[in-house]
Amino acid sequence: MTRRVVLAGAGGYGRSYLREIAELERAGLVELAGVCEIAELDEEARRLIGNRPVAADLPALLAATRPDLGVVATPIHTHAELAAAVLDAGAHLMLEKPPGPLLSSWHALRKAVADRGLACQIGFQSLGSAAVTRLAAAVRDGELGSVRGIGVSGAWSRTDEYYRRAPWAGRRVLDGHPVVDGALTNPFAHAVATALAVDGSTGVDDVVSCEVELWRCRDIEADDTSCLRLRTARGTTVVVAVTLCAERESEPVLVVHGSRGRAELVYTEDLLTMDGHTRRYERVSPLRNLLAHLDDPSVGLQSDVDSTGGFMRVLEAVRTAPEPSRVPDAYLRREGERVVLPGVEALVTQAAERLATFRELR
Length: 362
Prior knowledge:
Structural class: alpha/beta
Protein name: Oxidoreductase
GO molecular function, one term: nucleotide binding
Domain GFO/IDH/MocA-like oxidoreductase: 134-263
Pfam family, one: GFO_IDH_MocA
Domain Gfo/Idh/MocA-like oxidoreductase N-terminal: 4-124
């Protein structure tokens, strides 16, 4: 079945959805009905959109096009309003992560989806990896023995342009609206969501405690170097330690510490190492999975609204935490467009290995 799709957000990460919709359209799976965008379109966007309508008013565009599916890939603080517009129009929803900046808005989204009987997928791309499914099964079935904990380390670097790209970048609040654009809740949101999925603790009541340690190396509001330690209802300790100020970048690594074995998952590359063997797994995108689910409801959604509740508990803990502490300039180094915290790569790795916070490692 060919489904009519409206896309909200054709720039930023929304561009990847626009490109994917073009691929799916060529395959006869979807038809792009229109695009909601407030910024001027560049040449690529104009070419991909063609003669389809472009409007700044999403409800009006939805009323005019009557799509089967709405894709929302806009700034975090707009997610709740635009997601509601899609659902109110009677369309299924593909909502980019995170679901929103407030736990209360997540509850409202959950209720709206259930009340309308519509499908809603949240765009946690890593959860479409068969590597995550395989590791979650190994944890569930006891292949690694008793799980002492799950640690994730991430060391990326972002330039000044990353924080200049949009008014909301690196902000906790914008014009009175929560944004929560920190390392844990946006670029490394997949680290948190993947760890919870591996533990089988994705529900809103599955996170029973959460402590966060937020730092910033830059003159921004949000965190860029952070550590999270939570405990799940299963009794698992999960530590996520990340930075956007690495001297040497590396892909995030999730480690399961088991009494009978250890597993390492590079979730950005679908690489899983267990029992000394490394294998690369396949991945299905959230949008393709949603379309498959709509065609056949027996195909489960990778990341429905309910299964993002645990992540939203973490986001709420970050949002309500004290403002990030500023790392003293004496510990930092400026390298062109980058701010570097020397030695931070070893720090995040140790936190994930020892299931410790940054302060405990000092």
